[in-house]
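Hi W., the fe (ii) ion complex you wanted:
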Amino acid sequence: MTDSTAVALADFSSTWRSEELKSERTQQAALRRAREEIPELHRLLDEAATALRASLAVVVEGFPLDTTALVITAAALGRVDPSYNGPKPDSLVHDVVDSEARPYRDPDPFHTDSPLLARPHAYLGLLCVRPSPAGDGQTVLVSAADVAAEIADRSHLRALRDPCYPFAVPHASGSGEPSITTHRILALSGGGATVRYCPVRVTAGVARAGHALDDEHVSALRAFERALETRHLPTVFLLRAGELLLLDNRRLLHGRTDVGPEGVARHLMRVKVHAIGEQQDSRR
Ligand SMILES: O=C(O)CCC(=O)C(=O)O
Ligand SMILES: [Fe+2]
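Structure:
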């Protein structure tokens, strides 16, 4: 994004209050006006959406560090949605911060976001406000198709399609035993491969309800986990300040490498987007 487009987008965004952008209708109205008023933005959004569909992820450089601009831009992909986007129930933008409270953060292993939703968010946007000065906390991406291609045994691929893998659903209160919801993990279809996976949820799910998985499904899960470890598959890069990563949350897994003590100020802003026409926050 050129500097002048970024300035125009930031100026345009300052005329909207974030509460106004809660509904899909106002998000789309703001986006329409932004496209009309800033023709370069209009072109760039179309290019980014096309690249995202073709490549499953795209980085827009020179993006203004502005939550409203992020919401309006993400609305080009669908309905920006606050559910499962951090602890605050209504915030469209969640600050991902490696804070003093968690100064050393282990790698965030490959996962997809919102894995407990009946239909997980189609897209994520991660806008880098501040990278770790040490250059750690790199973004890692791997496609479901590449992971599937790494799994040689067709019977494992068949078993990973079965919607029987337990995902632990934490209690809203944060205490007590989690409940369990079951889903498929990996599916190949005409349109490519789709994936739903979160190691924390699945490990806790298997610990609690693993007895329901037979040997065939346990070994398919292990084959999937081994494929995720394949060294040559992931794309690894450092998001820099002002870089907005848009990614397909159902065809790609994402994660990040560990963040050392210098990374305490690392800061990303995250949005989650439902494709237009897909159901709301219906959990199963
Ligand atoms: O910190 C990161 O780079 C990734 C965070 C993440 O996975 C997320 O916010 O969904
Ligand atoms: Fe994530």
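The chain has a mean pLDDT of 92.

W.
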